[in-house]
From TrEMBL:
Gene: nrcama
Keyword Hydrolase: no
Subunit comment: Interacts with SHTN1; the interaction occurs in axonal growth cones. Interacts with isoform 2 of BSG.
Membrane-crossing residue ranges in chain numbering: 1154-1175
Subcellular localization: Cell membrane; Cell projection, Growth cone
Pfam family, any one: fn3
Family: Belongs to the immunoglobulin superfamily. L1/neurofascin/NgCAM family.
Membrane topology: Single-pass type I membrane protein
Keywords: Cell adhesion, Cell membrane, Cell projection, Developmental protein, Differentiation, Disulfide bond, Glycoprotein, Immunoglobulin domain, Membrane, Neurogenesis, Phosphoprotein, Repeat, Signal, Transmembrane, Transmembrane helix
Span of domain Ig-like: 40-127, 138-228, 242-328, 335-422, 428-514, 518-605
Function: Neural cell adhesion molecule involved in the dynamics of cell adhesion and in the generation of transmembrane signals at tyrosine kinase receptors. During brain development, critical in multiple processes, including neuronal migration, axonal growth and fasciculation, and synaptogenesis. In the mature brain, plays a role in the dynamics of neuronal structure and function, including synaptic plasticity.
Bias kind Basic and acidic residues: ranges: 1184-1204
Protein's name in the database: Neural cell adhesion molecule L1
Phylogenetic lineage: Eukaryota, Metazoa, Chordata, Craniata, Vertebrata
Biased composition (Polar residues): 693-704, 900-909, 1271-1288
Length: 1288
């Protein structure tokens, strides 16, 4: 990123440089090749005013070119300066550069005016007058500064007046701690270095006002003696209208030179401190060239022109009035070139002019010299004519070459220019390199050089593709031979030829032009408004010519980006992490190539919550109001929307701040309405678009005087909680509403229309219970606030009833009308209102199913309650059970409780339609048969009369075939459908019926089995579609349409009747293909996997078996039709099939005949082997195990341990291989046992052991000792253990 930051303002610099190059292409002076004779030309020289450092050597530059190479000499103060005679001065070889060693010498010795002369046989050129002056930093004159005493409010000037230096020193004011003295609109430093006070305050008293002068050439700093200022307050100055301290009076005049910087200054006295503003009389301040400094007291205008002359007015203003001062600016000008003389190349007999066109104010005087000598004193040349600023040379001759000097001067400076006249006869030559490549951007100007030389000057002609180029709207040929293409387009690319010709010959050159696409930012950075600590991203995406590689530079406020890792420059973006306030500014993206650039800018604004308001003040204080004013805090770039004013009542709720009011974000004051007897403190919060500020510091406390209450308690309510009581409740007043100490509540009540009130006075409560009241009687109630200062306003009367009691009468004439098997209607008479003893809320109808009339069971259901309003005397009982016995009663209720119940009413509901059959299942019996099974409905709702079974074939587009019906008796729970079509999708509907009608149907779908003899079986690897081998023992297929039924997605117009049937390890897909000729494929993949689809080619068939599917997995399957170019022309929607887990087959394998036969064969073989082993054992007799153990005395033999995983019994040491848990002797042999007839001698590498009675005890391996030493295998029968292992 650092490399991308290395350029500051490089975009503008690049454009300026390109413009200068274009101008030089068109206006470059005539250059004579250095291989040709020519007079001298000065190429480098020191500035006219040269201030030297007395501690370093003096270097004066003078370099020149010419043919032959010029020699150099110097003059000093107008006389010849003999360099060779001064040992301190050395002229560098090949140049006129002087090095003066001033060590041991005073630099003043070499001060003066120096001029260099470069000469050869064709003329002499001279340099400017170079004034050498030594820089000076004189000491401050000794002085004693008396303390300055001044009254508060008056103005003050502290003079600096440093010693004159060369160049002038830089002035600044500091204190004893080397800290700069603070400056502001009241205190500021003038251009001459003095310190001005518009008015003084008590804080200006100090004894260390020190003026410092820094001399830049010597880098020395000198200080003035400290100045002591004492401000008195015994006779302060009052407020006054401003007057000017500098410049004094009402008018003044200043002069400035054209091109310099104009500085105008106005410093005013006044109290309060005046503000300064500037205007130009009869004009406007020059746009883009003026600026203000020193708190508006200084106006600067850079690069002054004649138009900047005139009157400027500064205005000082405060609340007491204003004053103004007019400064008249006079613009003068040192001489400046309009057209400097240029070198002149002439052929013999030619005529030419040297022009010296200058201007200035006053008008400059022009003088001519030849080879450094005044033209008047040179020899008379009849071919030369001088007329003011023009020299005309006519009919020149060979050998008349010379260098002419033009000197233009006025009171403010001079200009000196050398121009030689060279008389040559030279054929043309082209100086531009051959086949030079030019590249420009489309729609820009192209300049093709054809720099040439010849005498006479050659004429330049241009050609493109053999076509002559003439001046036109598109082309322009400049005097120096440069071809300009005004607006270059891609078709202007190609080869160009220029020909230089004069009377001595011709010369041609070829150049090439490439016109490229411009660089354009297509995604510009946009304005960003972000919060602090967040991320800001500016985009800058560019489109450019492919042959140009653009670089990217980001600038902040036209300067380099901060060197901070938070700034991340990407390929097309700038990201600022953890944004801070310092990151605010304008960000510019510059995308430039070697030919052009584009830039775009956007502003970053950092916003955050505002700072809290400050300076809270309370004014206009009254009994019930006060005015609060404040000073807003920093908005942080997000305007304040409103101010929230909060208060704290430290008397009643100390530490609790409550919202009081809101005011507009443009306000800084609010009139606050107050309550009596409150100790107020206020604070203010500001809200902007980001959020609320912190709260301000609290204001001072403001206490209001007590008063009688303004309001009474609110929310007064009367309620009865029991038959003989009445509760009066209210919302208590807050401390803010109490208005004074001793707050109490005066509670009064009486029966409606009674005369006498009963009153109690209470404190710190919010209710009162009145006892001994009659039941449900209307009362009038009031609650009034009182305190030590009086009663509140007259309270409002609130009506309410005393407590209720339960109703005393049950509803009568209850009648039930049965509407259907599931609905009944009940009627009753309303109870008398006098029996309610409260507010009648309604009637509760309680009904309960006692039993079913069909099942003769007595499992009662829980009672159900329906509530009807007090105005109703009829109600409907929904959701009853058909063919059931019910009981019902009714009671009235009020707010206190329920009244007595009516007499129970009995009623019965008629039969209804039954519920749906349950556990419906459909199974395949064979290719053309399906078995439908079910269980009776859970709800018979009457006497079942039978079942209705309907079925019909359907295809994948839900088109149904002929619907068939079968009526079945009530005792049937299964039915077999024969003579169905194989490989067909069927839909079934099953209803239960009573005398009332049919109940809801259960819908199921199923497939008949696919005839696998019709299926094409391609031979592929497992896991793909394959031809099935001989079928295994049959297992019932799982039909995909059962619970929930599988429905193939609708197929497109090319595929129809797409069906699937899934078995334990394969799936069968069938379809109809109606499309054009093409290739048909079955594709499948595991559901929710990222594996590629597996594809099987299935042309020529309408069914396909996918084998090798994994149990328990789901697959997505689709059919695809492709044309002969393998492009997909149609694809069905995906079907989801699930392969059942193997647990079913594992559970059913034990019932298969082939498995039972295999197990029997294995058992028979084991029995035969055991008999053989028993015969062999009896051949050698029986030996106790203990004797076998005693015979093994070899210490190397270790019994097997249980922790080894072995049995810990006995081992045969006659084996050639050691047993587990034993060790073999070092010689590799095993000790032979005395016994050779035991069963253990017959084990051959088996994994198990048998003890002496034939039981299995461990591992034996090896051969009997009688076997041959060569390791021949034993001829004995194999170990029965090995035989067992061979079957596992």
């Amino acid at each position: 990123m650092d490399g991308k930051r290395s350029c500051s303002l490089c975009g503008g610099a690049m454009m300026i440089m390109m413009m200068m190059m274009m101008i030089s292409h068109m206006t470059s002076a005539l250059e004579v090749p250095l291989d040709l004779p020519q007079p001298p030309t000065i190429t480098n020289q020191s500035p006219k005013d040269y201030i030297i450092d007395p501690r370093e050597n003096i270097n004066i530059f003078c370099e020149a070119k010419g043919k032959p190479h010029p020699s150099f000499s110097w003059t000093r103060n107008g006389t010849h300066f003999d360099v060779e005679k001064d040992p301190k001065v050395v002229m560098m070889p090949g140049t006129g550069n002087l090095v003066i060693d001033i060590s041991g010498e005073k630099a003043e010795v070499y001060e003066g005016v120096y001029q260099c002369i470069a000469r050869n046989e064709h003329g002499s050129a001279v340099s400017n007058n170079i004034v050498i002056r030594q820089s000076r930093s004189p000491l401050w004159s000794k002085e004693k500064n008396e303390p300055i005493t001044v009254q508060r409010g008056t103005s003050l000037i502290l003079q600096c007046r440093p010693p004159a230096g060369l160049p002038p020193p830089i002035i600044f004011w500091m204190d004893n701690n080397f800290q700069r003295l603070p400056q502001n609109s009241r205190v500021s430093q003038a251009l001459n270095g003095d310190l001005y006070f518009s008015n003084v305050i008590m804080e200006d008293t100090r004894n260390d006002y020190i003026c410092y002068a820094r001399f830049p050439h010597t880098q020395t700093i000198q200080q003035k003696q400290p100045i002591t200022v004492k401000v008195l307050d015994n006779s302060p100055s009052g407020e006054r209208v401003p007057s000017f301290l500098h410049p004094p009076g009402m008018e003044s005049t200043t002069m400035v030179l054209k091109g310099d910087t104009l500085e105008l200054e106005c410093i005013a006295d006044g109290l309060p401190t005046p503000n300064i503003s500037w205007t130009k009389v009869n004009g406007e301040l020059p746009s883009g060239r003026f600026s203000f400094y020193s708190f508006q007291k200084t106006l600067k205008i850079k690069e002054v022109t004649e138009a900047d002359g005139g009157d400027y007015r500064c205005i000082a203003k405060n609340r007491m009035g204003s004053s103004q001062h007019t400064i008249t600016v006079v613009v003068r000008a040192a001489p400046f070139w309009i057209s400097a003389p240029q070198n002149l190349i002439l052929a013999p007999k030619e005529t030419g002019n040297l022009t010296c066109d200058v201007d200035g104010n006053p008008k400059p005087t022009i003088t001519w010299s030849v080879n450094g000598n005044p033209i008047e004193s040179s020899h008379n040349d009849p071919s030369r004519k001088v007329s003011d600023g023009v020299i005309t040379l006519s009919d020149v001759q060979t050998g008349s070459s010379a260098v002419y000097q033009c000197n233009a001067s006025n009171d403010y400076g001079y200009l000196l220019a050398n121009a030689f006249v060279s008389v040559l006869a030279e054929p043309p030559r082209v100086l531009t390199s051959l086949n030079h490549e030019y590249s420009v951007i489309s729609n820009s100007r192209a300049l093709l050089d054809c720099a040439s030389f010849g005498s006479p000057l050659p004429k330049i002609t241009w050609f493109k593709d053999s076509q002559s180029i003439l001046n036109s709207d598109l082309y322009h040929i400049h005097k120096n031979g440069t071809l300009e293409i005004n607006v270059a387009q891609p078709q202007n690319s190609g080869k160009y030829t220029c020909i230089a010709s004069n009377n001595l010959g011709n010369k041609e050159n070829h150049v090439h032009l490439q016109v490229k696409e411009p660089t354009r930012i297509i995604r510009q950075p946009e304005y960003k408004e972000v919060q602090r600590n967040s991320i800001a991203v500016f985009e800058c995406k560019v489109k450019h010519d492919p042959t140009l590689i653009p670089s990217m530079i980001w600038l902040k406020d036209n300067g380099e980006l901060p060197d901070d890792p938070r700034f991340e420059v990407g390929s097309d973006s700038l990201t600022i992490h953890d944004v801070t306030e310092d990151d605010e500014g304008t960000y510019t993206c510059i995308r430039n190539t070697t030919l052009d650039q584009d830039s775009a800018s956007a502003t970053l604004t950092v916003v955050e919550q505002p700072d809290p308001p400050t300076d809270l003040e309370l004014t206009d204080q009254r009994e019930r109001s006060v005015r609060l004013t404040w000073t807003p805090g920093d908005e942080h770039n997000s305007p304040i929307k409103l101010f929230l004013i909060q208060y704290e009542d430290s008397l009643h709720e100390p530490g609790v701040w409550l919202n009081m009011t809101e005011v507009s974000g443009t306000s800084t004051t609010a009139q606050l309405e107050l309550s009596p007897y409150v100790y107020y403190s206020f604070r203010v919060l500001a809200l902007n678009g980001v959020g609320l500020s912190e709260s301000s510091d609290p204001s001072r406390q403001y206490r209001t005087n007590p008063a009688k209450p303004d309001v009474n308690p609110s929310d007064v309510e009367v309620s009865g909680t029991s038959p003989d009581t009445m509760t009066i409740s209210w919302r208590e007043l807050s401390g803010l509403e109490s208005n004074g100490p001793g707050l109490q509540y005066k509670v009064s009540w009486r029966m409606k229309d009674a005369e006498q009130w009963t009153t109690v006075t209470l404190a710190n409560v919010s209710q009162h219970v009145v006892t001994g009241t009659p039941t449900f009687t209307l009362y009038e109630v009031t609650v009034q606030a009182v305190n030590d200062y009086g009663e509140g306003p007259r309270p409002e009367v609130v009506l309410g009833y005393s407590g209720e009691n339960s109703p005393t009468v049950a509803p009568e004439n209850v009648k039930v009308s049965v509407q259907s098997g599931t609905e009944a209607e009940v009627h009753w008479e309303a109870v008398p209102l006098s029996s309610v003893r409260g507010r009648l809320k309604g009637y509760k109808v309680t009904y309960q199913k006692m039993r079913s009339l069909h099942k003769q069971d007595y499992d009662r259901e829980n009672p159900q309650v329906l509530i009807f309003s007090g105005e109703e005397t009829v109600g409907r009982l929904p959701d009853l059970h058909p063919y059931s016995h019910y009981r019902l009663n009714i009671r009235a209720f009020n707010g206190h409780g329920d009244g007595p119940s009516s007499t129970d009413q009995q009623f019965q509901t008629p039969e209804g339609v039954p519920g749906p059959p349950t556990n419906v299942n459909i199974r395949n019996l064979n290719l053309d048969s399906l078995l439908v099974e079910w269980t009776p409905p859970l709800e018979d709702n009457g006497h079942l009369t039978g079942y209705l079974l309907k079925y019909q074939p359907i295809n994948t587009t839900e088109e149904a075939g002929l619907l068939k019906e079968v009526l079945l008796p009530a005792n049937e729970t299964s039915y077999t459908l024969d003579k169905l079509t194989h490989s067909t999708h069927y839909k079934f509907f099953l209803n239960a019926m009573t005398e009332t009608g049919s109940g809801p149907a259960v819908t199921k779908e199923a497939f008949t089995e696919v005839d696998e003899a019709l299926i094409r079986h391609p031979a592929v690897e497992a896991g793909k579609g394959s031809a099935p081998p001989s079928p295994p023992p049959p297992t019932p297929p799982v039909t995909q349409s059962l619970q929930p039924p599988f429905q193939a997605p609708p197929a497109g117009p090319m595929f129809g009747n797409v069906n699937s049937s899934v078995k334990e390890d394969h799936a069968v897909i069938s379809w109809e293909y109606l499309g054009p000729d093409g290739n048909v494929y079955v594709e499948y993949v595991v559901d929710n996997s990222k594996e590629p689809w597996k594809t099987e080619f299935v042309n020529g068939t309408r069914t396909f078996q996918i084998r090798g599917l994994k149990p328990g997995m789901s697959y997505r399957v689709r059919l695809v039709a492709k044309d002969h170019s393998d492009a997909t022309i149609h694809s069905t929607q995906e079907m989801l099939i699930t392969v059942p887990a193997m647990t079913n087959r594992q559970a059913e394998i034990a019932t298969q005949g082939w498995f039972i036969g295999l197990m029997c064969a294995i058992a028979l073989l084991i029995l035969v082997l055991l008999i053989v082993c028993f015969i062999k054992r009896n051949k050698g007799g029986k030996y106790p195990v203990k004797e076998k153990e005693d015979a093994h005395q070899d210490p190397e033999i270790q019994p097997m341990k249980e922790d080894d995983g072995t049995f810990g019994e006995y081992s045969d040491t006659e084996d050639h291989k050691p047993l587990k848990g034993s060790r073999t002797p070092s010689n590799g042999t095993v000790k032979k046992d005395d016994s050779d007839d035991s069963l253990v001698d017959y084990g051959e590498g088996g994994d198990g052991q048998f003890n002496e009675d034939g039981s299995f005890i461990g591992q034996y391996s090896g051969k009997k000792e009688k076997d041959t030493a060569e390791g021949n295998e034993s001829s004995e029968a194999p170990s029965p253990v090995n035989a067992m292992n061979s079957f596992v």
